[in-house]
Design the sequence.
């Protein structure tokens, strides 16, 4: 409710009559002060509702981070904005456990990234039989995260890699492949940068 609305409401609590006709003066200033305080309380209540959700928390962002085990150790070298920290909390909040590609796609999406996941072990390919290895043994424990990013820092995106490596199964290795949609260090649209991040 606005300041003007609160002041009008306060006026309705006083008796009617010539004596109570409010004009410029001390009494009007008292009403102004009361209306301003009610507006302040109203604003704080609205902010409290925002603070109750990790995606909109500002004043309580540190409390939310502690609740979900953030910041991650690998975030130490990353200067994050409040918006990124909010997304990190949401990503950690929904990471209740899973090993499906969709589980990691959802975590990345909550953190602000659109990714796809490629697994190297195929259950069947024409010409092969059940039980045949299509790659080396390690391929069964390797998967690839493909992402298109607006910026690539230090040949990759440390924030995305930190999240994926934190929540991935411990025995697996993740390869990160980034599609570059801008001129970057001699790369052109459609070029790919890829790297393997050690466990």
Sequence:
């Amino acid at each position: 409710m606005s300041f003007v609305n609160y002041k009008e409401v306060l006026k309705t609590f006083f008796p009617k009559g010539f004596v109570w006709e409010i004009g410029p003066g001390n009494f009007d200033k008292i009403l102004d002060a009361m209306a301003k305080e009610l507006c302040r309380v109203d604003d704080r209540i609205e902010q409290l509702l925002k603070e109750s959700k990790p995606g909109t928390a500002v004043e309580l962002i540190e409390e939310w981070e502690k609740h979900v085990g953030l910041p991650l150790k690998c975030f130490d070298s990353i200067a994050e904005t409040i918006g990124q920290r909010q997304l990190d909390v949401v990503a950690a909040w929904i990471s209740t456990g899973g090993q499906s590609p969709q589980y990691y796609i959802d975590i990345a999406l909550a953190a602000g990234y659109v990714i796809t996941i490629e697994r190297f072990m195929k259950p069947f390919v024409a010409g092969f039989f059940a039980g045949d290895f299509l790659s080396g043994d390690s391929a069964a424990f390797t998967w690839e995260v493909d992402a298109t990013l607006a910026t690539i820092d230090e040949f990759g995106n440390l924030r995305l890699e930190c999240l994926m490596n934190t929540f991935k199964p411990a025995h697996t290795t993740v390869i990160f492949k980034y599609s570059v949609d801008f001129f970057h260090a001699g790369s052109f649209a459609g070029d790919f940068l890829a790297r393997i991040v050690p466990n």
